[in-house]
From TrEMBL:
Residue ranges constituting the Helicase C-terminal domain according to the UniProt record: 546-700
SMART domains: DEXDc, HELICc
Catalytic activity, as annotated: ATP + H2O = ADP + phosphate + H(+); Couples ATP hydrolysis with the unwinding of duplex DNA by translocating in the 3'-5' direction
Domain Helicase ATP-binding, first and last residues per copy: 283-449
Entry binding sites for Zn(2+) 2: C520, C523, C538, C541
Biological source species: Lactiplantibacillus fabifermentans DSM 21115
Name of protein: Replication restart protein PriA
Cofactor comment: Binds 2 zinc ions per subunit.
Residues that bind Zn(2+) 1: C511, C514, C551, C554
Function of the molecule: Initiates the restart of stalled replication forks, which reloads the replicative helicase on sites other than the origin of replication. Recognizes and binds to abandoned replication forks and remodels them to uncover a helicase loading site. Promotes assembly of the primosome at these replication forks.
Amino acid sequence: MAQIAQVLVDVPTMQTNRPYSYQIPTAWQSQVTPGMRVVVPFGRGKRRVQGFVLKTSDVTNFDGDLKAIDAVVDLAPVLNTEALKMTAWLAASTFSFQITCAQTMLPAVMRAKYEKQLRRTATTSPTVAEQLFHGAASVDFDSVATTPQQVSELLRLQAAGEVEVYYQVKNQARHKTQLGVKTTLTAAELTSATETVRGGAKKQLALLKGLATLNGETMTQKAFCDEFDVSEAVIRTGEQKGWLQKVALEVYRDPYATSDIEATKPLKLNAEQQVATDRITQAVNGSETKTFLLEGVTGSGKTEVYLQSIAAALAQGKTALMLVPEISLTPQMVRRVKGRFGKAVAVLHSGLSNGEKYDEWRRIKRQEAQVVVGARSAVFAPLDKIGLIIMDEEHESSYKQDDAPRYHARQVALWRSQYHDCPVVLGSATPSLETRARAEKGVYERLVLADRVNRRPLPEVSIIDMKTELQKHAESNFSAPLLVALQDRLDRHEQSVLMLNRRGYSSFVLCRDCGFVLKCPNCDISLTLHMDTHTMKCHYCGHEEPIPRTCPNCHSRQIRYYGTGTEKVEEELQDLMPDARIIRMDNDTTRKKGAHAKLLAKFGSGEADILIGTQMIAKGLDFPNVTLVGVLNADTALGLPDFRASERTFQLLTQVSGRAGRAEKTGHVYIQTFNPDHYAIRFAKHHDYEGFFKYEMAMRHQGGYPPYYFTVQITASDLDEGIAAKRMYQLLQWLRPRLDPQTILLGPTPKPIARVNRRYYYQIVIKYKREPNLEKTLTTLLHETQAQQRQGLQIGIDVEPLHFM
Ligand SMILES: Nc1ncnc2c1ncn2[C@@H]1O[C@H](COP(=O)(O)OP(=O)(O)OP(=O)(O)O)[C@@H](O)[C@H]1O
Ligand SMILES: [Zn+2]
Ligand SMILES: [Zn+2]
């Protein structure tokens, strides 16, 4: 029997990966197992914290006095063997703490909430019991300690032993219950009960008939009443007569219960889809830990390949995990998967309430759901026997988490594929350069869908040079050709989608006459406008120069920061086209839960002619009547001070173009830009992913960027800019001798948005090809900066960051 538990404790100010030993009280010795949550005392005083049991052992001779576990939170482990291994791996590979990782893997409601209480003691005087506690055993600390006088009085009482402060760990997870009915009578007893019912009581007979069909099962009262057409009053009568019992029935909050999703059957695959599905199925059946890159143009029917591959895994008695970028943004995808697999599907995404997420999580854990669809953190879904993992739109940067642990869902997916011996499918029309490069090397197997379903052509793309447009007429967000095209669609009762790129809003300057963007002379990366210092800064190398008043390239005075809002665009368009019915989709109009899905449904049902939106409309939408796509400003993302700016622009333009002409009617795309000759725009015009890939790889090679180099970003932030900067210079001195001479250290530099939440950010970027000392150095850094964190300086380590801002 296990007598000692190694517990990972949740103490934010004193994190460590070293577990603490606690004694397991005799009564629980056969019950406490690894992966359970427990409440333990920590430090001096009465502090209670939540922790995870990592290991149990039966060592009986330990040094000193071990504290005992206070309470056991779970009846069964919430982290199984795989999950425990995964936390250890995740912590090591992202340089974060194991407790943070464990918490990230579980639904938010399972995170402990602490309540500070004031308790009575054995020696509390009757007056204090009455005045302070009003007869209760404990009170909320904050409610009785609002003034300094009160606090000082409490301190006095505490010193006198009359009261004590206690930290209560609150379990926030609540199950939802409904009233259910069940009967313990046998069929024969029910029949004889029928004979006691007097002639006219038809409803009582209906009740008995209903109960007879239950076969000992429990049914919710509501469902029972609906199905057998009896009232709650009749149920009460039945209860009084001893025919039935009312019980509390645990129910799941099902976020999709009210939406009626039509069941779908597998489509007949085209030749390319068939080849891809066969290869994946083969790997599923053979339990191959293989990674596929499914590179399929927009509208090539990747989803159908996913669905039929998932079916193959289910046929083997296995489960499947399907990741999509922030799913609340693609309600269409949920419908497709639920339509095919019905109740076997659990959905996890940030649009759900915490209770809903918890319920879906439990459904997966209890193996009641075999298919999980979800956004980033769904990669930790507690599925057993995974047969296939799919990652749709694998290039999406929302798969990377910005806070600790800074993990990429792709990394976790690959780890789980090793654990479960199953294949991973990375799907995209525009794979990330890293992924495509790995396929080139043969690390991943490449599967290609080169054509749209039914050989529909990809839409024609016209590039509109906004420099000449602006010379022709007054400043407007709309070029003449785009307006003509919009009017034309209005006349033909076809729909249009307009995208306004908000990324990089106003943070760089652009010449409206020649399209020139100011770049760093050292790094070939856009300089960022810093209004606080009135300078242009390179945040890769630290180069700084004044804000130009005229364009260094053409000497025009039309150089200014760039940016415009969706609301303004909507107003302008409504003025220009008073008859058009417009839906606007941006952070403002989609803030409310479910608003996103509603707006899309409205557009889908033809209640609007034009959908204006930010990047959120670029992906996944499949509306047959959309024949026109307009991109109002292709350049904003290009101007970002990030070596991935071209890649992101190309991906975005290709994705949004892909929304046009997906069904019978041919589509057309208009891209407005000040940089018509930029290669990202040229390749997007020709839907030429492969061309872009080769060109961009050459650029990365030349600049010494990923995938040719690996990168790690270290940030320091503090309310005091001087402290953050000083710490980074010290850190640079500290890092240099510890790392390989070949390794490049960039910075320290202020982050482009240097001040967020009143904190100042500084960063160092480590670039390397091979760095044997990296792991040791960064692990040391993580642990040694604990003391500084307590003083308010925050250090962040980000392996392979996706954003340098
Ligand atoms: N074999 C098929 N036969 C008929 N229709 C199909 C077939 N496969 C897919 N489709 C239909 O083609 C359309 C496009 O498919 P889907 O949305 O899966 O494309 P996709 O590759 O995911 O595109 P995107 O990357 O643009 O999201 C959908 O409406 C889908 O129902
Ligand atoms: Zn530079
Ligand atoms: Zn210029």
